[in-house]
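Hello, quick one for you while I still have it in my head. A protein chain has come my way and I'm curious about its shape. I'm sending you its amino acid sequence along with the backbone structure tokens. I'd be grateful if you could look everything over and explain what you see. Here's the protein in full, and shout if anything looks odd to you:
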Amino acid sequence: MKIAATLALLLIIAFTSATMYARRHPLEAFVKLTRRGLGRAGMARRTIEVDGNRVVYFAGGNGSRTIVLIHGVNDQAGTWVSVVPALMKTSRVIAIDLPGHGESAPATGPLPMPLMLKAVEAVIDRESPNAPIVLAGNSMGGWVSMLYAADHPARVSYLVLEDASGMMWDLSHVPLFPKTRDEALKVLRMVHGPDTPIAGY
């Protein structure tokens, strides 16, 4: 009975400590949780040297297809933890800490775009040297992904962009504050695509 009570007390203390840490340091707690999640999903932490900087990435899964995931600014590889387990069922999955993010160096100083691209290129060349990859990028990671795909079109079979920065559209002909149904339809088609059915039109 005393052993059970001691174990229960230790569990309560551990839970309370973890909760207090998460409340005081929510971002750090989130980062630790998501990175542990990559490990629990079966991904292995790996490193590669790029221009004298250590670049950290996670790799796991099986399959003939390789999916490379690129996070956004001020983020890290763990941000993909919710989709990684499903992707790993049919594919090899790589999640990169871009330079200056997560555990990748440099910890301070400028982060030029060419360094980001070199890091992505080095990881892809190591993990999928002979086959094109699926490249998915979020926000700034979408920008990095587009630049990589533009420089290495034969290395990318599919490019998936989520809220990608670095993209520009000519919006001069689009009424941002539509006054008629036709103007509203133009805006809806711009957002949802030209073939999206619009109910009631």
